[in-house]
User: Fold these one by one.
Assistant:
Number 1:
Amino acid sequence: MTVFTGCDCDNLMRSQFYVILCSLVPISALLLTSDADALQVIGGSVTAVQGGTAILPCYVIDTNDDLTQISWQRKTREKPRNDNFLTILPREGAQFVNGDDDRFKYIGNFNDKNGTLQLSNVALKDEGSYTCIFTFFPSGNQKTDIPLKLFVPPFTSVKDNLPTLGTEEVLFATCTAAGSKPPAEVRWLTGALGDKVKTTTNSTQYDNDTTTTVSSLFGVPTREINGHQVQCVISGDSLSKEETLPFTIQVYFSPTEVNIKKISEDSFECVTEANPNAKFTWSRSGQPLPQPGVKVEGAKLQLLSLTSDLNGLYRCEASNTYGKKHGQLYVHVVSVGASAAAWALFGVLLSLNVVGAAVWYFYKLQSGGQP
């Protein structure tokens, strides 16, 4: 057994006290480190559609430290420098810093250590990084970054290039997805047309990271291709579903040869092909239309009473924005004697290079020589 002197005893006590202090410090530091390691600030990246609502999640788990304040910072397209814009205090609640922005709404709960924000009417200027900062006692500040990415749906349209009849390849139409982020895909569905048409696609990117994509439809403008249905299909991450824009290929041309055909005993119709549809005008050469002897409705001419004052050369003009042509109808009423009252009618159709003409003779049969 070892015996210590008074002096040695004092040294031993001092040594033991030192050992005790040295052993306590690492244990305390270990406890603080363990609590800080357990604490987690939960956030995450967010994607929103322009004009919609974004939820910026931020909350803390696994800590018993006292929360004294929640702060929000942002670095966005509009504010490229780090900007303190919102502080949340236990009693005062949410308070804006450096100017209000009522689109932000605090939807978390301070007591639950939840700093989540809601941002309504999201715009491209809001895209960037948001930082949520929790101030705890005694562990200090804990934070996380929340990237906000914006999708911008395109403005879509199909434009007719108004091609006219011809034999050379021309542009029929363009389909546009304008101002999309990320870029939209634009394609044509042409069905049975096959290799009678072809497409090209071009894109233009702007400084704000939006892109305009244009797909063009080409072909030879013939009458056979006129009226065919095609579709422009637009798709992309910024759209919840594909958008389909139907389009009817239009080949525009002036009225073709104008013919006048009989549709009843006393009615005639002016017939032609045109795109857009022709408008019809009836007139009588050298004199006005006999009223009330005739009735005109668009392309149709009806003779209401067969008398000699209807005699003359009638002209039907078909016109649209691309040109005009006409056809002619000659009417001649002849009186003859007969034992019974009746009407007789026959016609001879004359074919001309440019103008369709018809000559119609109306024979008025008389009874007892009376008209």
Number 2:
Amino acid sequence: MSGRLLGIVWSERFREISFSHPMIRDVSKQRISKFKEMVSKIEDVIFISPEPSSYNDLLEVHEESLLNKIKEVSSLDHIGFLDSGDTVHYPGMFDDVLLVSGSTLTAISMSKFLEYVYIPLGGFHHATRSKSMGFCPINDVNLGLSRLLKRGEKVALVDVDAHHGNGIEEMFYSRFVLKINVFAYDGSFFPGTGDPSRRGEGEGSWCNYNVGMPLGAGDDSFEEALRLLKLVEDFKPTYLIVVAGVDGHKDDGLRSLSLTSRSYNSLGIKIGNLARRIGAKVISYGGGGYGPGSALSMFSFVQGLREVKVEEEVKTEDEEKRKYVKKLVDSFFESFTCGLKQ
């Protein structure tokens, strides 16, 4: 027992929700169900039933035209695509969209009483204000960030995923939110965004940090990337939002990185320790994950939040790629000024 109480937003409906391509929808659903079985066996965890959001809640971060489009296709009796061929729609999906976005609002509400809240089905960071994309019909992370900022909170985001969180960067690029994004990057890998030279503008100047790791980078490169958490400590947010997407695992179906569950456990441990030092609340998401290592990686992350170390897989290393990430991270430290003059 760690003594750290963790709240997990959970609905049995989560087992059946997936907006992914039909070829991987079953794998996506399986990792959510498997995670639930794993996490149910540990102590110091409470399960929180989410309340659906309203249509008007989503208008806070999305255009009415997009929401009406999702509502319209939700009434159809067949499966199709909301975008160019990634994000599916299916009968009744709008109710699932409201449940997903409501999970974020539920997490914010429950964070009054809990240090850490985790949403296993969440972290849909690709959707923009007007467009669904990348298995993301809407952007629940943007809703959470927007709502916290409206409450006057100081917010930092750590977005770890195989793919750059373009939808978040687009909406908050000029907002006073510290954004650290760790992902696979070669200039064209989906979604094609994540240029490390983009540091923010306006109120968000020098608050945007894209750590694009080389394709195939391993645990050692990830550890280098996590050195940037020092910026969060300097920023001193009241809320730390974490997208802990596990599709960077070496056995993921959308293979791009070579991480193991060790990396996600390390992320959880570092986030938990950091939040305790600065007195910040943590709301985190399960993000993407489409392989046999997904559930273990999610479980390893939440165990890390609880100060429990998990070392079930052999560490992956690539010295050349680690050196590249180290150089990139070092350059970010040299330019960090986000919030230091606020």
Number 3:
Amino acid sequence: MTGNEPDATEELETALDEQAEAVADEVPEIDEGRYLYCIVRTEAETGESTLETTGVDGEPVSVVVADGIGAVVHPCEGIYDTADLAQVRRWLVRHQTVVDEAGAAFGTPIPFQFDTILRGDDERVREWLREESETLERALSELAGHWEYRVEVVETEPVPDEALIEDDDRLRELDTRIDDSEEGTAFLLEKKFDQRLAELRAARRESLTADLQDRLAERAREVHALERSPTASLDDAVVDEGDARAGTGGSGDGGAGTGDGDTLCRLTLLAHEDAEEAIGSVLDDVAATDGLEVRFTGPWPPYTFAPELGGGEDRNGGNRSTNPGPSP
């Protein structure tokens, strides 16, 4: 099993292209706001403290606290919007880094989407924390000690057609008939032959995915399948770009994936940190299969599994939010 360093360029480019038109015509004006990274539980009941890191564009990061719940923020005067892909990548990495460091300092955070902004000052943040305290308390309690992990199973050496023919009566019949048929008939039979091969490969992929999901579900709290090709989402890009930055492997040997082969499945898991070794053991079994490679990354903040925070009437674009919660 290997860790991976996926190239997020294509995903980011697609996501940016799809969202550029949506945000170009209406960029909200913000006289004063707070860029939100994540929510954490703190020992302090109220006040403000610093986090020893810098945020997007090098901004100083602080933790604004109300009733034992902290929002990791930095002051801002507008959303982060640019057509410069390299700049967006730097912003994503910094966003992920701040959430990572908040998680290391305070435990499992509730992460915000990239470019989520609350209109107002620190006092408005405290007001919002109190307004949402019931939801935030429940989420922090339910997610405590749990993290997100990403799994990708890649077929680096496809099963030969000959092996599939040997194991399938229908394929053997078609293969024999093709050899004994005239050109026109043989052409039609070859079409059926290729369709049957595709069906068998799809069935094998679905069976492997279902079996892996069942085995992981015994060790994780939640398991969800992702699109086999990375989705054009800046939410996923935050994690995927973090993969590229860190090249992490939750367990196994680590190292870089080859980038070759056909992705059979991509899964995201919510699991307690104590279950990481058991999950790695399941994935090691899969990786021991000839022709398969498993890429396992994490732990990440639970982007996929955290409750949706923010948005509402002022939501702009797929991932840019202003003024989560009621308007001040």
